[in-house]
Amino acid sequence: ARLIVSALNLDVAPEDIDPRAPLYGEGLGLDSIDILEIAVVVAKRYGIEMHSEDAGNAKIFASLRTLAHHVAETRTQEPSRGSLDAPGIVFAAVAIVLLLAYPLGVR
Q1: 51, 70 in Cβ contact below 8 A?
Q2: Which of 32, 37, 39, 107 has its CA 20 to 30 A from that of 81?
Q3: Distance between CA atoms of 4 and 1, rounded to whole angstroms?
């Protein structure tokens, strides 16, 4: 929760975020740009590779709880505070946001 609050400069205390509430839309009320920012920060900080074709993206970003579970299972490094200069991470994060906004099979 602290990472999300910090990355997005939210005006809410991390402990006030319900880990089961939806991140996208209702709940925490984040939009696709917010999800993109979270994806970039999480990927860089924890060394997680994100792929736009991953069918589980909507589930991963469904709530703080599901995101934390995914990070715990897939992280490849301890948290870092490196710069966000990895174009591949940004591309993957943009693709994930597009899939969340426009799920496959929905026209």
Answers
A1: no
A2: 32
A3: 5
In angstroms, the CA 68 to CA 65 distance is: 5
Q: What is the mean pLDDT of each successive set of 10 residues along the chain, which is 107 residues long?
A: 91 92 88 85 85 80 92 78 50 60 52
Write the Ramachandran bin of 29: left for phi over 0, alpha for psi from -120 to 50, otherwise beta.
Answer: left
Structure tokens at 94: 């943009």
Helix or strand run (H / E) with residue 84? none
**Residue 71, Cβ density class (10 Å: 0-12 exposed, 13-18 middle, ≥19 buried):** middle
Per-residue confidence (pLDDT) for residue 17, from 0 to 100 = 92
User: Which tokens in the block code for residue 43?
Assistant: 């990927």
CA pair distance 6, 73, nearest whole angstrom: 23
